[in-house]
Write a structure and sequence with these properties.
68 residues, 7 strands, two-stranded antiparallel sheet, globular, five-stranded mixed β-sheet, Ubiquitin-like (UB roll), mainly beta
Length: 68
């Protein structure tokens, strides 16, 4: 199936959850926020939230740092 991730179309296997897709992409789910079809997905629901063909996802990484 095809999904759009951060504006880029990708082919991924059917029947994936948000959690499984993040794992497949090598992304640590503890360090990102996920928007699926314009709605924020709570981390507690990553394993239960399915990704369907044509879905649009935005994955935002948290980056620490700054000046002390």
């Amino acid at each position: 199936m095809k999904v759009h991730i951060n504006g880029e179309e990708r082919d991924v296997p059917a029947s994936l959850t948000v959690e499984a897709l993040l794992e497949r992409l090598g992304i640590d789910p503890r360090k990102v926020a996920v928007e699926l079809n314009l709605e924020i997905v709570p981390k507690s629901l990553y394993a239960q939230t399915g990704v369907e063909d044509g879905a649009r996802m935005e994955i935002v990484h948290f980056i620490g740092g700054g000046v002390l």
